[in-house]
Amino acid sequence: MSKLTAVKRQGYFTRVRKRWKQRDVREIDDQHPKYLFTQYIRHGVRSFLLNHDKKKMFLSKEDHEEVTRHEFTSPLHQSPMGFESYAPGVFYSLRQRIGLSSVEYLETVSPLDNQDFYYEFLTNSKSGQSFFLTRNKQLMIKTITKSEVDFFMRILNKYIQHFESFPHSLLVKFVGMYSIQVSKFRKPVYFVVMLSIYYPGERIQYRYDIKGCKIGRFTKPAEDGSNVVVILKEQNLKDGKLFLGQQKEWFLQQIEIDTKFLQSIGVLDYSLLVGMQPLQGDEQLQNHQMASVVSRIQKSVAREHCVFKPSPHHTENINIAPLPETSSISTPNTLGTDAKCSSDSEYVSDEGSTLPGMVQDSTSVQQNPIQSRSTSSLGCPCLGRPSSAQTNGSGVTSPSMTSHTLTCTYATISSEEASRQNRRLLPNYRNELHVIDGDDQRYYLGIIDFFTRYTFKKKLENAYKRVIYPKLSFSTVHPDIFADRFRKYWDDHTA
């Protein structure tokens, strides 16, 4: 056997072992049929972010309608390529509100190391769309159609307002929308970047896609040894229910809030993704320890809703090559009352009220309340830097200052506002906005695929299915009917 054959054989077995360890994904290396396309995406996103600094927190109507075109040349392609970013300022604003900095976003979606390949997410989806995961699996890239892009642009302002009103919403968090055109003679490909609901998914045992209907809602489980993660459906649901414990009331309330929003924009056929991971004994114990509860309460009522856990001193003004991070940012407090700070690591709201999911026993934080102190005019004592209220003397925020409420982990809202926004006790875990700790399971939850409208084509499909299927057992129904059925399903299938 020649040396070349031996090397090829060794490389083959190395790839097989790697794929066995990563059963839900397949690495998109230079032998993968989608390798060039994913490289175009990487280079396009990097080139755009380095040349178009859309740092805006105070948004106008024009920002929600903006489409910025950028021409670049990929190292893999000699002719110019077209790249468009939709509402870049709006998505920048949303990334900041969930704690995803420009540096982190760039390094995650488009790392400098060309060997940091994307993963192809292997599913039994019938949509025909492509799903890619970043190297650390925190972000997912999904191809979409031009009509879906147009629809999302029309409802983008409502989507952002919904997230601002209900920061703990179950709706999937989109952080970017783009298109790329490899040749002027080819049609552009459209895609969105969103938080992966199944992150981190190494220990997830079961994954479900649940619509709340009956027809076609059973999937044959994967065979032993299969490299594909099968997304199960309603009739596969283990034990038939989600056992959320103290989080049940919050969950049902948030389902109602989110589905009413989806009704208002006239969509149907959306799903709740569910991932199940057993909670270990030490994890359950930690959830009930007072120190953990205190820190989780502080995080749950904080104005920042951090998924990526940036350090307290990290700001968007830090100069980290190659991003241009020196632009002036004026970020007024748009979320309500003035921030409150404390140099202590423990916080409870002024009125001492509880959040959904708070442990009601001897470890309750209410038995050890710590009074929060208001931010002084000299700045925030917990971070040792000026607050966002300071100006340069002309009433304009200093260029060197960023919004205190976006970086200070002690900037909080009142318990009344937390209740109105249906906030819950967030777990001490990555991806906390999409994770709920139930009785003995950790659940990954998020509503996806809410771009389907009740068009004339869907109405014809509804008329056809009413003839051959029992009433209301299929997904193609009026948005109001779909939402009512979705809510009822979860009323009956949570405990």
From TrEMBL:
<dbReference type="GO" id="GO:0016308">
    <property type="term" value="F:1-phosphatidylinositol-4-phosphate 5-kinase activity"/>
</dbReference>
<dbReference type="Pfam" id="PF01504">
    <property type="entry name" value="PIP5K"/>
</dbReference>
<dbReference type="InterPro" id="IPR023610">
    <property type="entry name" value="PInositol-4/5-P-5/4-kinase"/>
</dbReference>
<feature type="region of interest" description="Disordered">
    <location>
        <begin position="312"/>
        <end position="402"/>
    </location>
</feature>
<keyword id="KW-0808">Transferase</keyword>
<feature type="compositionally biased region" description="Polar residues">
    <location>
        <begin position="360"/>
        <end position="378"/>
    </location>
</feature>
<dbReference type="InterPro" id="IPR027484">
    <property type="entry name" value="PInositol-4-P-5-kinase_N"/>
</dbReference>
<keyword id="KW-0418">Kinase</keyword>
<keyword id="KW-0547">Nucleotide-binding</keyword>
<dbReference type="GO" id="GO:0005886">
    <property type="term" value="C:plasma membrane"/>
</dbReference>
<dbReference type="InterPro" id="IPR027483">
    <property type="entry name" value="PInositol-4-P-4/5-kinase_C_sf"/>
</dbReference>
<dbReference type="InterPro" id="IPR002498">
    <property type="entry name" value="PInositol-4-P-4/5-kinase_core"/>
</dbReference>
<protein>
    <submittedName>
        <fullName>Phosphatidylinositol 4-phosphate 5-kinase-like protein 1</fullName>
    </submittedName>
</protein>
<feature type="compositionally biased region" description="Polar residues">
    <location>
        <begin position="325"/>
        <end position="346"/>
    </location>
</feature>
<feature type="domain" description="PIPK">
    <location>
        <begin position="21"/>
        <end position="494"/>
    </location>
</feature>
<dbReference type="GO" id="GO:0005524">
    <property type="term" value="F:ATP binding"/>
</dbReference>
<dbReference type="GO" id="GO:0046854">
    <property type="term" value="P:phosphatidylinositol phosphate biosynthetic process"/>
</dbReference>
<feature type="compositionally biased region" description="Polar residues">
    <location>
        <begin position="387"/>
        <end position="402"/>
    </location>
</feature>
<keyword id="KW-0067">ATP-binding</keyword>
